[in-house]
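# step 3/5: fold
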Amino acid sequence: MPIVKPFRGVRPPKQYVEEVECRPYDVLNSEEAREEAGSNEKSLYHVIRPEINFAPGTSEHDPRVYEEAAAQFKKFQEKGWLVQDEKEQYYIYAQTMDGNTQYGLVVGAFVGDYLNGVIKKHELTRRDKEEDRMKHIRVCDANIEPVFFAYPDNSVLDELIMRYTQEAPEYDFVAPIDGFRHQLWQVSEDRDIETITSEFAKMPCLYIADGHHRSAAAALVGAEKAKNNPLHTGKEEYNYFMAVCFQASQLTILDYNRVIKDLNGMSSGQFLTALQKNFIVENKGKEEYKPKQLHEFSLYIDNNWYSLKAKSGTYNDSDPIGVLDVDISSRLILDELLGITDLRSDERIDFVGGLRGLKELKHRVDSGEMRCALALYPVTMSQIMNIADSGKIMPPKATWFEPKLRSGLVIHKLSE
């Protein structure tokens, strides 16, 4: 049963929120962050991408960069751009994309639940990425950015959220970079705080949707602080890390597509013929073609779109991994035909989030940068939960959640 707690959020006064808030650190590179921050000294990029305060080309892993993150976080508080709430509370965070709104609860998630598997993961993490985030958490002594969780649908929490969101929000803005709306409410009534805590305690588990490295880093730093504190009681703030928890049925997962540099020595004709062993291949012409169902893929090559439907027997519906289209395409196309066996490191392949659409796939191929593109049908949240429940791991580059959580709306300090 998951343990969550309210906390005293550190956040911008209402008049500063649109200057402070920004995209998460891992969806853009240093130069993009430098450009987006511009001359805005209140941008949280100065905390989460502090290399922008150094000469272009400075490594984001330079020790000075981590020190700058802590200095900037301190500066933001001294300047009053970030202020800590007086009372421990929960927060409701709403995101609206294309007319659809999803409502998340911002909570302190229990470190022990991550370590013992009550918070379930579906991706492998890399130690170097964990260590990067651990350094950032250590120097700031805070979870600057939240992780993204899903929870089984809950009617009690849904009713509470709907009641609060009838009132005027604390924050309400449209992010200029993507046009998505973001709103935040405070849940400060003791009765409602208790309801949220008790309803989470009734759930079997929570699921990491996005932010596996941040989750691992936050939990490891919390455990590290507990080990190093001779007076540790278990009630310290570092025993928790910040998460935004959404009802699973509300979440939108977009396709996560592939672009490939070469055909492993084959001509286009040879490649299309080879595909017929495991797929029903149909030429769809020059109009963009998006997969309509599970086990169907779209291939773009030589100015034409093709439908590829996996033949019966090429996948196992009873295997939570084997049924996934990312697994089918990896096994039968990337590995068997193109010789791409490691999606994390092979430089012959790149990945394009579904928000960019098929036009981006077409552009990458038509420009000559890539030889072909493969569009996949999106993974479902139920598939992710089934895999997490089974203790298995999703293949790499399988999920793309939108909208992304904005950073800077709430921050969680590890010590008061």
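# step 4/5: annotate
The chain is about 30% helix and 25% strand.
# step 5/5: archive (pending)
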